[in-house]
Each structure stands twice: as structure tokens, then as C-alpha cells.
Amino acid sequence: MKLIFSTGNKGKLKEARQILGNEYEIISPYDMGIDPDVEETGSTFEENSIIKAEFLHKATVMDCFADDSGMIVDCLDGRPGIYSARYAGESKDFDDNIFKVIEEIKEYEKTHETNRNAAFVCVVTLILGGEKYFFEGRLDGHLIMEKRGTGGFGYDPIFVPEGSEKTLSEMSEEEKNALSHRGDALRKMAEFLKKR
Ligand code: ITT
Predict the structure, then answer these.
(1) Ligand 1 atom closest to 69 (CA)
(2) Which positions are annotated as active-site residues?
(3) Long-range contacts of 96-103 (CB under 8 A, 24+ apart)
(4) pTM of the entire predicted model
(5) What pLDDT is stored for residue 63 in this prediction?
(6) Is 153 in the pocket of ligand 1 (CB under 6 A)?
């Protein structure tokens, strides 16, 4: 089955192809000459996920999906949340974002007890035959204050999933996908597609 993935994030694209496997041909908007960068004006993961999916569906009239995701940090009142990609600025620089989160946690800990709990959230919007369907995934864990590992993308080097000693960046791609918020959401989507 052919599906276009409305993303400009190469890490997400690679993971989606691995998670969904050979039964699916996951096409990048760039392969169709479309720049997927659309303004994310929503105030929730779901709203932004819909915006990205609808944008691509309007442009192609093909079945497609989008992933809006981010990291929620307890002691930062849920930030960076929907602002995860651009937390430190428009360049979407992963290192700058990590630096900003760590600085904010250090600031918090000057006056509060340590609480480094965090979670990744992912909301997938699938547009199939013009209808919308939603799938959510979540991964709980905690943050460390220095980067470890080289795999993955985004905040992976400082995120340690519950029950693990390794950061997501220290895991193999298969290990990360087996427990990630994206793996969770996309496997739900695959199950739904299989039943139809
Ligand atoms: P698209 O909108 O083009 O898909 P994006 O990176 O801008 O790409 P989002 O707006 O959904 O996507 O923001 C997601 C951000 O959340 C991402 O850039 C990372 O900073 C973070 N994030 C999401 N999933 C992650 C993961 O699996 N590992 C590490 N960081 C992740």
C-alpha cells in the first residue's frame, strides 16, 4: 500500500519506513516535488497533526498521514510540548533545543526538588479515502543532564525510557522503534489498515 508521509523530518521518515515494513511504500513529499513545511498554528498535537495531513492531502489527493510529536517535561509544566521542534529557534537545531531544556531544568532545580520525568507523545492523522483517523502513542521516561549515544534524532540523547538504562540514542533502531511513541502510534495505524 502506498502512503505519503507529510513530514520534512528525515528521522521520522526513516523510523516510519522501518516500523511499517515492506507492506507499505512510504513516500516523502519531496519525492513528489512538494515542500511539506506548513505553519503549525494549532494548540495541540492533534490540531497540528491534522494541519500537516490536510495540507498534503489537498496537494496530492492521495492517502497520506502526518505525525505531530514532542517531548513533555514534568518540571517544565509540559514544555517544550508542541514547540519541541523549534524550542530554541526556527533553525530546529537538535543540540540547541537540548541545551535549552537542560538549562531550564537546572534553573528549576535551584529552587525545587529534582523531578526529571518526561514523556514523548505522538499523534498520527491518517487521511484515507478522504476520511480522517487518529492514532496516539506515548513513551514515558526521564531525562539525563548530558547527552549519551549517537542514534536517533531530536531529544533522544537525553531521554531514558522507563525500565531502560540506555538513552534512546544508545539503542539500535529496532530497540527504539519497539518502544517509541511513534512505533506505538504507527503500529496502531497498521492494525487499523489491516482490518479494513
Ligand atoms: P514535521 O513537522 O515536518 O513532521 P518536525 O520535526 O517539525 O517535522 P514536529 O513539529 O512534530 O515535527 O516536532 C517534533 C519534534 O519533537 C522533533 O523535531 C523533535 O525535536 C521532538 N521529537 C519527536 N519525536 C522524537 C523522537 O522520536 N526522538 C527525539 N525527539 C523527538
Answers:
(1) 11
(2) 68
(3) 97/154, 97/155, 98/147, 98/155, 98/157, 98/158, 101/71, 101/73, 101/76, 101/143, 101/155, 101/158, 102/143, 102/145, 102/158
(4) 0.97
(5) 97
(6) yes
